[in-house]
């Protein structure tokens, strides 16, 4: 770990070896370092897990009256809380897409892609934004899975209630997963991989995007655990519905019960204990009428003047990072959003930034998050 007081010496050493670059380090409450000077501050994370919950603002989840005490107290005491973490849009779908591609929303995405339509575009503008409208991006628009595959790394999306692997509506059809059904509470709009033709048109889609039940066996060894595990609970277990169609209370209470089952399975797995990181966050706050705030310089995009419909973002939701490389019970007040998360994963996996993950001045996780020993 490079300490701030050693920055000058470290950079001098780097000058004698042009292939070695050193990043600026910061303390837990300071601004996160930018990766322009290198990645020496990064921990040796090889297995990343991401869990997204639904539609809760920061105070509701993390405040003293939280209906999710396991998340807000038990798990919080085990990791670092990102107290200024924001969604990037309203409604749900564009937030998930942002996390894996850096693409901003358009009007159909903001409406949660009621019709599973092809994206129709007319080129790109900086930083890497496809200009147009629609939901399923062409193969010319890259996403994180393309990067991982290209580097020989592994990934899987685990979707509760998905059943049939790589399940999505027919292109051009109305999305019939917009509302939960008894025995089937899967929502395509919470599965970002289904919005890229490079994924859904691939013969390997059924191997990569699978039902949540497959996670249990995959966690059995480090060799069977993907480098990226992207996990989406169903419409009850993610806190979206309240009450749920199956009679459960839903909201944070049901999400907390789901976390009690699945988080210990992840954190006790060989991959996590060796070199893992788990990020738990929410797609957006309660909705555009209650919180459409933003951070991190987010502004109008080429396809949406107001990414949050009534404001610039998806509101403050917070995030929790658990890892052997973070210090338990700590807090970072650095501003982050879903584009920051993508950029931070790209840092760990050693791939370039996509879309708004490459925006100038965007904070990426640094020693405020990776504040443990490594």
Automatic annotation (TrEMBL):
<protein>
    <submittedName>
        <fullName>Phosphoesterase family protein</fullName>
    </submittedName>
</protein>
<dbReference type="InterPro" id="IPR007312">
    <property type="entry name" value="Phosphoesterase"/>
</dbReference>
<keyword id="KW-0732">Signal</keyword>
<feature type="signal peptide">
    <location>
        <begin position="1"/>
        <end position="30"/>
    </location>
</feature>
<keyword id="KW-0843">Virulence</keyword>
<keyword id="KW-0378">Hydrolase</keyword>
<dbReference type="InterPro" id="IPR017850">
    <property type="entry name" value="Alkaline_phosphatase_core_sf"/>
</dbReference>
<dbReference type="GO" id="GO:0016788">
    <property type="term" value="F:hydrolase activity, acting on ester bonds"/>
</dbReference>
<dbReference type="GO" id="GO:0009395">
    <property type="term" value="P:phospholipid catabolic process"/>
</dbReference>
<dbReference type="Pfam" id="PF04185">
    <property type="entry name" value="Phosphoesterase"/>
</dbReference>
């Amino acid at each position: 770990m490079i300490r701030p007081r050693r920055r000058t010496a470290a950079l001098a050493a780097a000058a004698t070896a042009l292939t070695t670059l050193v990043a600026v380090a910061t303390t837990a409450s300071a601004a996160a370092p930018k990766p322009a000077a290198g990645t020496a501050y990064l921990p040796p994370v090889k297995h990343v897990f991401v869990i997204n919950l639904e539609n809760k603002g920061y105070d509701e989840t993390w405040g003293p009256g939280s209906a999710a005490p396991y998340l807000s107290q038990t798990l919080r005491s085990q990791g670092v809380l990102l107290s200024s973490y924001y969604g990037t849009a309203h409604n749900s779908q564009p937030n998930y897409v942002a996390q894996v591609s850096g693409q901003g929303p358009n009007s159909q995405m903001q409406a949660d892609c009621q019709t599973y339509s092809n994206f129709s575009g007319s080129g790109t503008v900086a930083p890497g934004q496809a200009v147009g409208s629609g939901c399923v991006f062409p193969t010319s628009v890259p996403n994180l899975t393309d990067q991982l595959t290209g580097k020989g790394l592994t990934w899987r999306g685990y979707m509760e209630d998905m059943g049939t692997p790589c399940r999505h509506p027919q292109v051009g059809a109305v999305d019939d997963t917009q509302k939960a059904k008894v025995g089937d509470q899967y929502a395509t709009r919470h599965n970002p991989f289904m919005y890229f033709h490079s994924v859904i048109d691939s013969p390997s889609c059924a191997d990569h995007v699978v039902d949540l039940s497959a996670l249990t066996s995959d966690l059995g060894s480090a060799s069977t655990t993907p480098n990226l595990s992207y996990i989406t609970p169903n419409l009850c277990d993610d806190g979206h519905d309240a009450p749920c169609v199956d009679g459960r209370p839903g909201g944070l209470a049901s999400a907390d019960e789901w976390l009690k089952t699945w988080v210990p399975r992840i954190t006790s797995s060989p991959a996590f204990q060796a070199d893992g990181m788990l990020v738990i966050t929410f797609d957006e706050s309660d909705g555009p009428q209650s919180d459409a705030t933003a951070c991190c310089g987010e502004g109008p995009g080429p396809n949406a003047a107001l990414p949050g419909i009534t404001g610039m973002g998806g509101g403050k939701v917070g995030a929790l990072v658990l890892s052997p490389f973070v210090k338990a019970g700590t807090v970072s007040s650095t501003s982050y959003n879903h584009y920051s998360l993508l950029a931070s994963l790209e840092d760990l996996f050693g791939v370039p930034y996509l879309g708004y993950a490459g925006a100038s001045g965007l904070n990426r996780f640094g020693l405020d998050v990776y504040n443990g020993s490594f």
